[in-house]
Design goal:
With 376 residues, the protein is mainly alpha-helical. The chain has 17 helices and five strands. α3 runs antiparallel to α4. The relative contact order is 0.09.
């Protein structure tokens, strides 16, 4: 490792708490000194952790693509020709590729990105991925005091024509929602036999009951965010344990806003059982467990939350490819709609800000059970 790369690796260490540094050395080789300085500046500006992770991931991909496609790091500002080349390399027609090998991403560029672990999909990118990476490219350009040709009519036209040429059906992040009946099947695989069962039961119940929390919120949950509340009495007078979760700043909240959601009853019991068994009295709530049953001191990676969902789906005899961690979020609102819970009440717990997005789950539930779907 050269001195320059070693210095960049040390600088990346200073922001490791908010960046995906599991590939620190690779990032240090790929990113330029100016890239690292831009990321450190964004950390100091208080940019959200998830936004920073997305920016870093896309910046690393863009730098890798630029090196493979042009032999040079990304230029700042980006010329229009380079932006159009990026679109041409990522939005292409598989049918035309069969008759024209030069259509789409060149073979040598494709191979370089795959060898570096940056490209995994077999076909072209989705339009959403291309737009997101262009948007993040534009954002990073602005933070560096550069403009670029991101608003050029030619670029907008190229994207529009590429999408029209290869239409794709929009798919949800999770093909199927983890509704109450599905969740019950997943929980049935958690038999309380070991720490992993206790952890997974608590994770699934907390993620769902707290409004369908995002996997990053579940993985990053800390004991200090939990506050014991007064028991809640139900109709028969039985007191149920209750606690509040202070989410702090989330994807949809303001910078200074502390989002709070509540847990009552079974999810609280499951969480307390895990915390007691794992002897966790501070720090990360959900942690990795090694093969010998030792509980790590570090938080689960957000990807591990998705892996846990898929593992439990497989054990329940369902198809893992049809479910993901996001299914807990969509499943919460879908289940609320099925049970007739008013949309505003469900949104208070899910912390959705877009009524349009939340309403889609309610509309789907209403249409499935409505008279229009039962004419015969």
């Amino acid at each position: 490792m050269s001195d320059a790369v070693h210095i960049r690796a040390e600088q990346l260490d200073t922001i490791a708490s908010v960046l995906p540094i599991d590939r620190r050395d690779k990032l240090a080789e790929l990113l330029t000194d100016q890239d690292v300085e831009t990321l450190r500046h964004l950390v100091n500006e208080g940019m959200g952790e998830n936004t920073l992770r997305a920016l870093t991931s896309d910046l690393a991909y863009l730098e890798a693509w630029s090196l493979a496609a042009t032999g040079s790091p990304l230029p700042w500002p980006a010329p229009e020709a380079l932006l159009l080349q990026f679109v041409a390399h990522h939005l292409w027609d598989p049918a035309r590729r069969e008759s024209d090998p030069d259509h789409g991403m060149p073979v040598d560029v494709d191979r370089a990105l795959r060898d570096g672990g940056f490209l995994r999909s077999a076909g072209p990118h989705t339009a959403a991925t291309v737009r997101r990476r262009l948007a993040n490219w534009s954002t990073l350009s602005k933070w560096r005091g550069a403009a670029g040709a991101f608003a050029s009519p030619a670029l907008k036209s190229a994207i529009r024509l590429a999408i029209r040429a290869v239409p794709r059906q929009r798919r949800r992040k999770s093909a199927k929602a983890v509704t109450g009946d599905v969740l019950a099947k997943l929980l049935a695989t958690c038999g309380d036999h070991n720490l992993r069962d206790l952890r997974d039961r608590a994770l699934l119940m907390v993620a769902f009951a707290s409004g369908g929390r995002r996997r990053s919120e579940v993985a990053g949950l800390r004991k200090e965010q939990l506050t014991v509340e007064a028991p809640v009495k139900v109709e028969d007078g039985t007191p149920l344990p209750s606690l509040s979760i202070h989410l702090g700043r989330t994807k949809n909240s303001g910078a200074a806003q502390d989002e709070v959601v509540y847990l009552t009853g079974g999810p609280v019991d499951a969480l307390n059982a895990w915390l007691a068994a794992a002897r966790i009295d501070s720090g990360s709530v959900f942690r990795a467990i090694d093969r010998w049953g030792n509980v790590s001191r570090r938080a689960l990676d957000p990807k591990a939350v998705n892996d846990i969902v898929k593992q439990r789906v497989a054990r329940a005899g369902l198809e893992p490819g049809e479910f993901s961690a996001h299914g807990l979020r969509s499943g919460y609102l879908t289940e609320a709609a099925n049970r007739g819970i008013p949309l505003p009440e469900a949104m208070e717990q899910s912390r959705h800000r877009s009524v349009q997005q939340a309403t889609s789950y309610y509309n789907d539930a209403t249409r499935r059970s409505g008279r229009a779907a039962r004419l015969l």
